[in-house]
Each structure stands twice: as C-alpha cells, then as structure tokens.
Known about the structure:
Helix content is 39%, strand content 16%.
Amino acid sequence: MSQTAINASFGLEPIDEAPRRAALAAMAIQKTVSTSEPGGRSLPVKVAIHTSQFVIAYVSGARWADPDAERLSNSMLENLLSQAPWGAIVISPDSEPFLDRRFKLEALDFGATPSAFLVTGHRATGLAVRGTMGRFVGRHHEMELLENRWILASRGHGQVVAVVGDAGVGKSRLVWEFINGSAAQGALRLQASSLALSSATPYLPVVDLLKAYFGIDPEEAEERARERVTARLLKLDRGLTPALPALATLLDFSADGERWDDLDPMARRTRIQDAIKRLLVRQGRERPLLLVFEDAHWIDSESQGVLDALVESLPTACILLLVVYRPEYRHRWADKGYYSQIRVDPLSADDAERLLEGLIGGREAVATLKPLLLERTEGNPFFIEESVRALAETGALVGAPGSYQVVKPGAHIE
Length: 414
C-alpha cells in the first residue's frame, strides 16, 4: 500500500475462486467510489488484476511468498495501471481464463505492451462463448426433455427442471444451447447466478434477476430507475401495485407508502416472496417465462425461500424454471408432479473424441496426443477445452483451432 495505491492479494489462504473474488472486489470498489463524493462526483480510481502462481510457505508462524514472483506480478500490475483509463478495471491475459466465464470482458490493445482486457460487467450465466469452445456434442435426451418441458410450461403447465452435475461437465453449456435454440424462441429469458461468496448476501441472484427484468443500469440514478420499475409494473398489471414496496427494498430504493421498517423480518420475507411470485406469474401470462438460476449450490437462504415459493406457484403458470447446481445442493421439490431432473455426466468416449476432434483437428500429427488428453480429462468437456487452450497458449500446439499441429512430443506435455 502507498499514498496512491492499494495492493491486495487473493488466495494466499486457500479459498475458492480467488480471481473471481478479486474481480468482484474491484467492481465493488468501482461502485463505491462512484457515489462517495458530494454532488455526484466520482473519485478517480482504476484497478488492475493479475493472476500468477506463487510459492507460499509459513516460516516461524509468518507467511512467506516468493519475492521474485511477487516482483514480476507487481511489475505487471504497474504496467497495466500505467496505461489503463481512469474508472476502468483492467486484467492481464493470465487472468482472462479465470474470469471470462463469469464476467464480460473487452479486449484492449496496448500496442507494444502485453494485451489486456477490460472488465465491463457480469455475465448472466457462467458460460463464455469464446474461440476455444468446442462444438456441442451428445446430450440429445437432455435437450429433448428440456424441449418437452418448455412446451408444457408455455401452455400454462409450469415446470421446474433441475440440471445437476459436477463442475465442468457441461451444465451451463446445455442450458445455453437450449435457451438460445429454436425451441425456446418467443420466451422471455431471465438468468441469474449465485456466487461462491454470496451465501451471506440476501437475495443476490434475485436482485440480479429483477435488474435484468426491469432493465436497470448500474449507473442509473435511483429516481430514474424507480420510475422505470413503477412504470413497467403498472403497465403489466395495476393490481401489482402492492408489490412495489417489496421490490423497491430489494432494488435498494426507499420503500414509500408503507412502514416497511416496522415490519418484522418474517413479514418482510413473506411480502418479498409474494411480490416476486406475483410479478413473475403475471408476466408469464403475458409472455411465457424461461428462468435460469445458475450455481444454486451457493444460494443464500433468502433467495432459496423465493425459489421455494415460486416452485409452489408453478402448476398453472407459464414458467419454465431451470435450476442448475452441483450434487451437494438439496431442495424439497422432488415430489412435485411438475419436477424433472437432468443428470449431466461426463461425455461418453465417442462424444469426447468428437469434441476433441473439433478442437484440434484430425491431422496425423495430433493423433498421438488425443488418447493422452482423453485419458486425463475423463470426458469432462470443460477440461478438454481448457487443456487444448493451454497447449495452444504455451506453444505445444500451433495452427488454428480445428487444425492444430503438435510442436512438443506428447510425452513432454504436462
């Protein structure tokens, strides 16, 4: 830390998704300083993020980090900051693979200096469509089930579908292919995601979903955003007027027209759940809804209450609710007649080979590499894609995606 800068490290202690936490902290800083000065002026702040491997040790009870690696990282950060515009969050190329699935990134060209990326916002879903993403293979039965449930939901027989599987097996890709395919055309699609560190932040994915629905810009003034919410709600149905105080509270507006602060926590929770349920069910009658909640295994208890209330209202609603999670998540919907579960497993050997073939090509030069990659990735499509990407970035593979050649012998590829 200096008079003009703060250097923070994420991951010195073992934590989940350290780069993602760093990016979220940067966005929180950006949001805070934008409103910290009187008269609406913002403080001049820019943030740089770099990801690197460090040797960490504990010596006599004190934490020690490799000073050479630390100097290199600090040099990269200073280089990024020296050329980044004020108000920006800029990340190094080494950080991009860790963040592009969850954040919107914009490539920058700094001329002779290393390339970098601007962080411009969150992604609604944990899937980034980028150059190394392979073709969609397999999952025929899963897609058929989703299409069937959408037909039922669009006809007023609401459905909840659990999409469950381990990290990297393709849950987000399956959902992305479905919601962007022809079967779901005409749906109003809303997506939200929980975060690994959000279980203590009430209603985080619900708030994101509401902001997407009402089209609220993060930089928008509260008064204008409130007018937008009120106008859209009343246009949809004036009978939703009683829901305004609860929605205003979630969106961090003052709750006019009601003694909201006098309500006990249980009463507030009930009114919030009812407001969201009524809004979404009513919107579904106007235009069928396709709702996606990603990473439910990290959901906070208040958002879980909203999901439970919404599930109870589905039988006569025009809503398809997709809840995406890892196996450790638990819910109470399995006995519902309108509940289905899709278990997303690693790809079969044939499908994994087709995916890999599309990524690296069919040249004889890469033939010996394929069995090694298939064995090490065990049919996990994310691992397959990231392995190919890493090999290309390190120079072990050269050429274009789908037509690579091997530079390093397979035995020397780690």
